[in-house]
Amino acid sequence: MPIKLQQQENLAGAASRAAQGFGRISKTPPPAFDPQNEQQAACTYFAENGFVVLKNCLNTADLSFLNQFFNQTQQTKPDAWGLGERRKPHHRNQGLIFSQPLLDHPELDRFTRHPGAYPVVSSLLGGEQHVRFSEFNFRETPMNAGVGTMNFHHDEALADRLVRRPYMPCDWLCAIHYLTDVEPDTPSFCVVPRSNRFETLKEAFEELGEDYAEVPLYGVSGTCILYDTATFHTRLDGDGIRSRRTWHQYYARGGWLPSALPTTNKYIRAPSPPLTNWNLFPERLALHPDAATRRFFSHWNTAQGEWVASGFDPKLRKSMPRGEQ
Ligand SMILES: [Fe+2]
After folding, report:
1. What is the pLDDT of residue 129?
2. How many angstroms does the Cα of residue 312 sit away from the middle of ligand 1?
3. Distance from residue 5's CA to the centre of ligand 1 (Å)
4. 7 C-alpha to center of ligand 1: Å?
5. Which positions ≥6 away from 295 have C-beta within 8 Å?
């Protein structure tokens, strides 16, 4: 049974920084690994801590391309970013998100298995044949966004992680690429290392004892953070003035995997279930002529199943949440 803790945000916007987590914020930055030369060390660190920081995952041309994509689409497709008339008043001070840019932008396909971070992702999920695409979106905390104070939470997580042996590979992992520099005054991602082994943040706090820490992750543009979706995390607000852009991509584990539980040695882990009931893959990817690419995009949810059955009917897509044009 999936455990899901909702992201809780103070939509009223606090005047000052409100408390997040237990306030034991680490002043020591975690190591950052070179994904080309330190792949094994990066994977070992992830397996122990539930996250890893990778440096230099995007080059100058990639960063320029993606930032230009933000600039252009915010002008040409404001509704897709939540910037248009349909933007709800109580969301106006919250972050922007372009939920499904892959649907209409094949120029982004090359980023779905980008050579910067992908080799590490692949290794963490058990090899190329076990990596599946889940979700791809762009987010921006705009200038003067204020202080939203997101609480610590984890994303989707499967309960068997608490008892299965071995723990790895994890069920899903998320790659967050910083597209602008992230410093103490900008919004930043923040994790609680090793918290993926616990059901609640309180339990992690009590069980990890002295090792419990909330670790802000700063880095220049091109830095990539990989985290197990079961790891507790949040977004720290920074000064509420400066902006930040990020690219978020979720990957799932595919295939059937022999494992063990305390009660039986004959346990088999099924492919990780879909993360959402609305995320869609376009025809060019879902029905790609290359078998390995089709396998990568093979984790369809029921909305996708219906869309494929309709022959990728644009009217059906439009009727779905976040099926933005
Ligand atoms: Fe999250």
Report:
1. 97
2. 30
3. 9
4. 7
5. 129, 132, 254
Of the chain, the percentage scoring pLDDT greater than 90 comes to 80
User: How many angstroms is it from 291 CA to the middle of ligand 1?
Assistant: 31
Map 141-159 to HEC letters: ECCCCCCCCECCECCCEEH
Domain range 2-275, its CATH number among 1.10.10.60, 3.30.420.10, 1.10.510.10, 2.60.120.620: 2.60.120.620
pLDDT given for residue 14 in this prediction: 30
Query: How close is the Cα of 234 to the center of ligand 1, in Å?
Result: 6
Centre of ligand 1 to C-alpha 159, Å, is: 17
> Which residue do the tokens 């509420």 mark?
240
Residue 138 β-bridge partners: 98, 247
C-alpha 228 to ligand 1 mean position (Å):
10
Please give the model's pTM, rounded to 2 decimal places. Answer: 0.91
Long-range CB pairs of 39-47 (<8 Å, 24+ gap) are 39/119, 39/120, 39/123, 42/120, 43/120, 43/123, 43/124, 46/120, 46/124, 46/226, 46/228, 47/124, 47/167, 47/168
Distance in Å, CA 304 to ligand 1 centroid: 23
C-beta of residue 68 within 8 angstroms of C-beta of residue 87:
no
pLDDT at position 86 is 62
- Please give all residues whose CB falls under 5 A of ion ligand 1, grouped by chain where several chains appear: 155
From ligand 1's centre to the CA of 76, what distance in Å? 28
> Is the predicted pLDDT of residue 269 greater than 90, yes or no?
yes
Instruction: Give residue 105 CA to ligand 1 midpoint distance, Å.
Output: 25
Could you tell me the distance, in angstroms and rounded to a whole number, from the CA of residue 293 to the centre of ligand 1? 27
Is residue 243 over pLDDT 80?
yes
Report pLDDT for 93: 55
Q: How far is the CA of 154 from the centre of ligand 1 (A)?
A: 6
Domain ranges of the chain: 2-275, 282-325
Mean pLDDT value across residues 226-250: 95
Which of 80-94, 116-130, 258-272, 280-294 shows the lowest mean pLDDT across its residues? 80-94
